[in-house]
Please model this.
Amino acid sequence: MGCDKLTLPFGGQTLLESALSRFSAEFPNVVLSVADSAKYPEITAKKNVDIFPGAGAMSGLHAALTNLPDNGIFLVAADLPYSCPRAAKRIIEMCGDHDVCLIRLDDGKLEPLFGYYRSTILPRCDEAIKSGEYRMSELLLGADTRFITTDDLGGLWDDKIILNVNRPEEYDMIRQPDPPPHHS
Model:
């Protein structure tokens, strides 16, 4: 993107502020995962600093599971501008005794940065970081993961929920207002 995409404007806020406000409205304990505590000084949300910086999302997941007192965390990337906290709550409910619960699309695509991770996955996460394997998809391979379908989310599902903003053209797309409904 050529800049820190989380600071890009979206709906009168930055992408990061938008994610924090959406999830803070539904969850009592929203924590921002950062590699450096000095990053985003304008953000007043509680920050959780990576224990092993440099491993991307895996660092954030590891630190959250290590430092936060709950049985698990819902991990959501701030660059998912339409991520839905109510869908997140449903995914948490559907996890049961599994280590992880996330959406698998009909084409097999996963979005590991919108899923629930129970603290039982921490040893695998720790092992992955220490072995230099930072891909979230690898973490899921041997884990007890419950994959849910979009149908499992019913009316909470929208294709935009896991729309990720990684490239300028994706950012341009989310900045366009939705077209008016077409009636025949």
DSSP finds seven helices and eight strands in the chain. The longest strand covers residues 110-118. Strands lie at 9-10, 13-14, 31-34, 46-49, 72-76, 100-104, 110-118, 145-148.
